[in-house]
Write a structure and sequence with these properties.
alpha/beta; Rossmann fold; 10 helices; globular
């Protein structure tokens, strides 16, 4: 039985509504019984069974932000798309709130494929996924498991298990550093249980310190300003539960990425602090992979991390390349 969700009726995205697409809200359930909320974007006037794309991310964002923009823009190109809130966040269900899981959040993508496969206006053999930031890593993880996914895009990706276990740029990659992190997080578990609540880690820092690193300023510019702020966004407000990091430290994703047979396009800004995630993920994915010919790494000149959230005022999202990629691998045999 699906959990009944309260879905906002009015348009409350951080981007304008397109006149080229029809928009509706929908829900679907994942394998753990959590009901997820999504926005459905359909090309206006489209008929028949369409190729479809499920979009999610960034990590700590909601579907009213970057994922919705990607979904709506790709729907303008002829795809049926959905942008969904992952489990425990946004308008989606699941308790406790504001917790992340490498397993459940990978499952969320496959649940989206379940939903799309059963829509009467979708060709179940022509479904792709697109993950942004932390959900780029989840998308690759889903592609390694779910053979129904025919094409995957990871945009400005993070490997959330790597950054939680090793720190940024692997600077905390030692047993001692991980032990201290786990010790603090497990102490927080006891506090949370005693209090009957889950303490939040805080969203993007506000006010912004003068000496904040550039990538923190980059996040602030998106999540804390009119550009991208949304009242349901974790990063715009209180953030994730502090103890969310525990499972990410202990359960690395992408273990079998070099067994992905379907097409993959990894896109990243060449000046992004996070670019090493994409470069390393691509190298690992094609190593000893018999199906490396349909894998590609695309670096966007002069682009930083959040430029691929909304274009960054410089049209950084390579939407033509994304549409052509999905066109090739989802729609190439259409007449």
């Amino acid at each position: 039985m699906e959990e009944k969700l309260k879905l906002t009726k009015e348009w409350d995205k951080v981007f304008p509504k397109s006149e080229k697409t029809d928009h509706a809200k929908a829900t679907f359930r994942n394998r753990y019984g959590i009901t997820l909320a999504c926005d459905v974007y359909r090309p206006k006037g489209a008929n028949g069974k369409l190729s479809a794309i499920a979009v999610c991310g960034p990590f700590g964002a909601v579907k009213e932000q970057s994922s919705g923009l990607y979904a709506q823009t790709l729907a303008e190109r002829g795809f049926l798309t959905i942008a969904f809130d992952p489990s425990f966040t946004g308008e989606s269900g699941g308790l406790p709130r504001y917790v992340a899981s490498p397993d459940i959040n990978t499952e969320d993508f496959s649940a989206a494929v379940d939903y799309l496969s059963c829509r009467e206006d979708v060709d179940p053999g022509k479904i792709g996924i697109l993950g942004i930031c932390g959900w780029g890593g989840m998308a690759l993880n889903a592609a390694a498991m779910d053979t129904r996914i025919k094409a995957t895009v990871a945009s400005t990706m993070y490997d959330m298990t790597r950054v939680n276990a090793k720190g940024y740029f692997d600077a905390a990659d030692s047993e001692e550093a991980r032990y201290e992190t786990k010790k603090a997080l497990n102490a927080q578990r006891t506090i949370d249980y005693q209090n009957g609540t889950y303490e939040l880690g805080g969203g993007v820092v506000d006010p912004l310190p003068d000496d904040a690193p550039f990538f923190v300023k980059d996040y602030y510019d998106y999540y804390k300003t009119k550009r991208g702020y949304h009242p349901r966004s974790l990063n715009s407000n209180g953030g994730w539960n502090k103890t969310s990091a525990l499972s990410f430290i202990n359960m690395p994703i992408l273990a079998y990425s070099n067994e992905i047979r379907s097409a993959v396009l990894i896109v990243h800004g060449e000046k992004a602090h996070s670019c090493y995630f994409s470069k390393d993920a691509y190298a690992a994915m094609i190593k000893d992979n018999k199906y490396a010919e349909n894998k590609e790494l695309l670096l966007i000149p002069d682009a930083v991390h959040t430029d691929l959230y909304d274009g960054g005022g410089k049209n950084a999202i390579p939407i033509d390349r994304l549409a052509a990629f999905f066109e090739k691998y989802l729609k190439e045999d259409r007449t």
